Amino acid sequence: MSDHLRHDLDELSEHLDGRLPEPRRREVLERLSECAECRDAHATLLWAKGQARKLAAVDAPAGLEAEIQARLRRRRLPALAAAAALVVGLAFVYSRLSPPPSSSLPEAVAEDVRSRWAGRLELALEVSDSRRLEAFLGEQRLGFEARVLDLGMMGFALRGGSAGPLAARPSALMVYRETATGHEVLCRMLLGGLAALPAPHETRQHDGIPFQVYHLGDVTVVFWPEGHVLCALAGRGEPEALILLAFAKAMKASRPTDAL
After folding, report:
1. Which of 216, 124, 212, 126 is nearest to 171 (CA)?
2. Which of 17, 82, 232, 250 is most deeply buried (CB count within 10 A of its CB)?
């Protein structure tokens, strides 16, 4: 596959807008799983589109699009470089209006927990059916498929979830409540790997899976990779109990879907 096809930003934009037919959408998801540059471009486009939606609608000057295309052709930039330059330019303009979050991923996940505890974080879909939430998240064009696990056997009931950027990255959120205590834990899924994280307070290894643990005040956050997706489990309370739950969830996620 050529670089142009692998990094086609027009196609990524079409994917984010929900305009790709199903076969092409699957191909885009496959490329995102294999290509770090595509994932970075996808995250930038998602953030830029989100910022654009905050701006008041205005009519573009007549002929602006044709002029931009003509200038790009005259400069004979490669398609990817031209598109990337345009995206970077848009991101810079939008950043002057509303810069992306600067907090680290562990801190952003911990803030989710505190916001949920304080009643400030509402869910887009409140549902106890994992299949319904998984279908909802699949419609959000995240760039990855978010599996929603049933943790009932572990003593946790699904409360619902949402989709949206976390630290400028596409992300899925799932909330579970411990049936015995009523305490909630939050699970985040987003494109990326452990290399995107700061140095952890602890590192663990369980059944060949690496885990990074962060103790942030009253919140514990545990990250681990699932293929090209970075998963996080966060909550208040006993840190070791949360770490063990992360181990169990990662093990359950590693099993084939038909075995769940």
Report:
1. 124
2. 232
